[in-house]
Amino acid sequence: MGRLFWKFFLFIFVAQLLTILAVGSSIWLRTRAPAEPPSSEAPPPWPPNAAHPPSVGHKPPPPPHQRHHFPIEPMLGGALASLISAALLAAYVTKPIRHLRRAVQAAAKGDLSQRVSPLLSRRNDELADLGRDYDDMAEQLRTLLEGQRRLLHDVSHELRSPLARLQLAIGLAQQQPEQQARLLARIERESNRINQLIGELLTLSRIEANSAQQTDLIDATTLLSELIEDATFEAAAEQKLIAWTPPVEEIWLRGNAELLRRAFENIIRNALRFSPAGAEVLLTISGQAEYWHFEILDLGPGVPAGDLAQIFEPFYRGPQAAAPAGYGLGLAIARRVVEAHGGRIGAANRTEAGLRVWLELPKAKEDD
């Protein structure tokens, strides 16, 4: 038993003991016989021939005097009952705290698997709520730590390949001076890949650090027009097109324009990358009560149904991602950006062919 148990136990026991003592004393004082008042009337003289002394008045004789003892026995019984009830009550209060303490100590050592709420399933009070809150916190921390470990592993894996090629190219350039021009081009290409990967990781880190909480008023129509113009120019070499019709109503969003542009760009470029040559990527926009709904539809191979929930995870590359280059960070960045702006994002395979990525962002007003 811990210190809190003994504090509860002694406090409750002493309080009940004092109550028993006070009640017993009160009962004893009330039942004790009052003292016989002294008589002030002198007895009459005793006649010489009388057998008995004359009586004064006709008062009955007083009852025999009874001594009232202090109620030791019932008080001892009450004290024993108080002792048991204090111990049970103290154990009832401190038991969930001991469970919670053991779970916190395990978490401090890195073990986030212990849960408290199953041990308090019979309770329905504030301590049980505290146990459930701890379990929720431990689960969130476990998910976050696992995500960070997985991200660190993936980053190490992605950096290892270009660094190995970079070292190989440098070694060959030293051994084959006549191939320096070709090998320097290889070194530059690998350096750019590493730089791009680090840039995308920094973007992810910046979003998760809540740096996206910028509240600029953004004209989404202008942003998308510029973005689609750039993407169309780059996709023209493969005869790919982006079809969209700007809505008549102005589209206002609030947030970080640079990050929102990055989110839309990643989704559209991803759709162009997986679409075959000559295909058309479709962008649709519709307004709902409080959100703008965007959909980007491509004609690519789609995603296996079991992987749809994973395509927004960092470094996810499905089985069809072997051909197109990429680190699998584009959609992960898009999801972080959308969620940081209070929106939602999802994906589904199209019935005919390809993938449909949708996102919803809260509406803003020009005069907000």
UniProtKB/TrEMBL annotation:
SMART domains: HAMP, HATPase_c, HisKA
Cited CDD domains: HAMP, HisKA
E.C. designation(s): 2.7.13.3
Swiss-Prot/TrEMBL keywords: ATP-binding, Cell membrane, Kinase, Membrane, Nucleotide-binding, Phosphoprotein, Transferase, Transmembrane, Transmembrane helix, Two-component regulatory system
Any one annotated GO CC term: plasma membrane
Subcellular location, record wording: Cell membrane
Keyword Nucleotide-binding on entry: yes
Membrane topology listed for this record: Multi-pass membrane protein
Record-linked PROSITE patterns: HAMP, HIS_KIN
InterPro entries (alphabetical): HAMP_dom, HATPase_C_sf, HATPase_dom, His_kinase_dom, HisK_dim/P_dom, HisK_dim/P_sf, HssS/ArlS-like, Sig_transdc_His_kin-like_C
Organism domain of life: Bacteria
The keyword Phosphoprotein is assigned to this record: yes
Domain HAMP, first and last residues per copy: 91-146
Main location: membrane
Reaction(s) this enzyme catalyzes, per UniProt: ATP + protein L-histidine = ADP + protein N-phospho-L-histidine
Residue ranges with Pro residues bias: 35-51
Domain Histidine kinase: 154-365
Region described as Disordered: 34-70
UniProt cross-references to Pfam families, sorted A to Z: HAMP, HATPase_c, HisKA
Transmembrane spans: 75-93
One Gene Ontology molecular-function label: ATP binding
Protein name: histidine kinase
